[in-house]
Amino acid sequence: MHEVFLLLGSNLGNRQLFLKQAIEHIETEIAPVSKISSVYETQSWGKTDLPDYLNQVVVLLTDLSPQIILQKILNIELKFGRKREEKWGSRTIDIDILFYDDQIINEPGLIIPHPELQKRRFTLDPLAEIAPEWVHPLIKKNILQLKTELIDELNVKKI
């Protein structure tokens, strides 16, 4: 079984409901959730004039390959009406693969660990809540260390 960390985010519509429904789809279509963080409200990152996000991290144990997980995630996003029209644009749901065990994958369309996670408080705060000692396989630091060294000033609060 592979341990997979996913980041969920929503900044359009009923954000809380979209997170809940996305988790239900993940459990039905990919694997049961073994850990789940609190929900965090976050200022928009990248394009700061957009509505605030709700973010959450979930952990799965699965036999599926990262490529199959990615395809299933993209299908779930489509069910929620996700459109990829602009970088960092608003979305009903966004699901990113943060980690797949401690594997390092760099393929077209699939980079694991997520290349920006160590720069984003909205990712590290929920990760630190459920996996503080998890070691980033490229940076060789645990999540708490990465969070301590973070210079991201965006407002992130647990709700």
* Overall body shape: globular
Distance from first to last alpha carbon:
31 Å
Taking the sheet with the most strands, its summary is: 6 strands, antiparallel
Work out the helicity level: 25-40%
Number of helices: 4
Rg: 14 Å
Given the helix and strand composition, which structural class is it?
Answer: alpha+beta
What does this structure look like?
By secondary structure, the protein is an alpha+beta fold. It has four helices and eight strands. It has helices at 15-29, 66-79, 121-130, 143-149; strands at 2-10, 33-36, 40-42, 53-62, 94-100, 105-107, 110-112, 156-158. Strands 1, 2, 3, 4, 5 and 8 form a six-stranded antiparallel β-sheet that branches. Strands 6-7 form a two-stranded antiparallel ribbon. A hairpin with a 2-residue loop joins strand 6 and strand 7 (110-112). The termini are far apart. The model has no long low-confidence stretch (mean pLDDT 93).
Topology at a glance:
Layout: E1 2-10, H1 15-29, E2 33-36, E3 40-42, E4 53-62, H2 66-79, E5 94-100, E6 105-107, E7 110-112, H3 121-130, H4 143-149, E8 156-158
Antiparallel strand pairs: 1-4, 1-5, 2-4, 3-4, 3-8, 6-7
Helix pairs in contact: 1-2, 3-4
Briefly summarize what is shown.
This protein has 159 residues and is an alpha+beta fold.
Keywords:
globular, 159 residues, alpha+beta, two-stranded antiparallel ribbon
